[in-house]
Amino acid sequence: MTELGPGPSFLEYLNRDRPDLLPGTRAALPADAGAQVPHGTTIVALAYADGIVMAGDRRATMGNVIASRRIEKVFETDTYSVIGIAGAAGLAIDIAKLFTVELEHYEKIEGTRLSLDGKANRLASMIRSNMPMALQGMSVVPLFAGFDTFSGSGRIFSFDITGGLYEEVEHHSIGSGSPYARGALKKLWQPGLGATAAVQVAVEALYDAADDDSATGGPDTVRGLWPVVYTVDSSGAHRVEDAILADMAADIIATRTASGRES
Amino acid sequence: MSAQYYVSPEQLMKDRADFARKGIARGRAVITASCADGIALIAENPSGSLHKIGEIYDRIAFAAVGKYNEFESLRQAGVRYADTRGYSYSRYDVTGRGLASVYAQSLGAVFTAEAKPFEVELAVLELGATPPQDTLFSLNFDGSIAEQPGFIIMGGDTPALREAWNAYWSGKDLAAAGIDEVIRAAALVLPGVGESAGDAHLLEVAMLERSTSTGSHRHFRRLDDPTIARILGAGK
Fold first, then answer.
1. pTM higher than 0.90 for the full model?
2. In order of start, what are the domains of chain A with their CATH numbers?
3. Share in percent of chain B as helix, strand, coil (round to 5)
4. Closest chain A C-alpha to B51 CA, distance in angstroms
5. CB half-sphere exposure, A116, CA atoms < 13 A
6. ipTM for the assembly
């Protein structure tokens, strides 16, 4: 039988013809490698009436040192989906970039977009192929969310380092600050939130995570750095403007200052 | 063992070129033109799913006439080339010129070395900031490449189409025209299509938009039938 071409997957094409360009094919790492590279932390995602919101703080840490105050960990992967990544930052950004090309490549070769489930499955297999690195402390754990054009609703997917894929309902958070963010989401999230209210909930959940987790950065009023927040609805993915986030952060700080409570 | 007859290189190349030219002329034509709104790509193509026009990268598009399986494999190879380059260097390092010269090399190699030349003609189009900065490359079955100012017409009875197209634009400025007018002009020139809304399904239309409404880095947009019908209908 004639051999068929590499198909619509960019990843499979690289695997076959350009394995040198893949992120996971590096030499074995020293045992403590995980502690020596910057790590990204908290990402939150929640569903609202028209779609989903995803937000990430701006801090990357290397052990107890702040490696970056302005890192971006939430990316638009295509018109209808976003990815947020926690874990080894360099590898995570590589995987997000490769995944973005993978989706665009499929769309151009096939002339049609992947379904949201198809995208999540593709990402799961990319995380699975990173297993050897994950076992050396270079784990990458994404949170993936998007607007499902078939069902007409927003959906959220989480992953483990083995490539396990889990669909989340209502909301989810990953990274070191996620236990605190999740607590906040449980109290603040409500069914049928509007877009602005949902962004507010995401920013406040990140604020709570930063309050208790040293690896999560809070709003930086000195440098004017705010979380990276995306909304995805039937019109596509949109990044929330800094001016809006600055106002929301100012409100949260003012409210908490006024209440003067310890926790 | 039978001895091979001697065929002079001139004769061999001429035969191959005649063969390829015949194959290309049998197909329907494609018109691509640079105008104020961007680069318009218009093909006479009744199929809604087998495309003659495709997206390659952010500001680069592809159009072809001839044998579908041959130009489709070239289109896919082009997408792979562009995505690999953009992924390993940067999105800015993917250029129409680079892609066109890769195509020229592979078409040339097939023309001289393979049993049968490709029966295709290609256009590689790169959007610039203004119409004079657009680059339009036309590529022939033998690997010859040319940069064309303004527009490219390929396939079908090309000389007749070019004449009709030039007649339409004489006294009018193509570079200053809007996309709607370019689409209507192409519909008028392409032989199997008329300038009426009912003929929308006979056309395949896409464009490289000079300014994208979403702010996306991807400038390629395919127009759906209702949009084409509206544009053709508005001409009456």
1. yes
2. 10-21+37-259 (3.60.20.10)
3. 45, 25, 35
4. 9
5. 25
6. 0.92
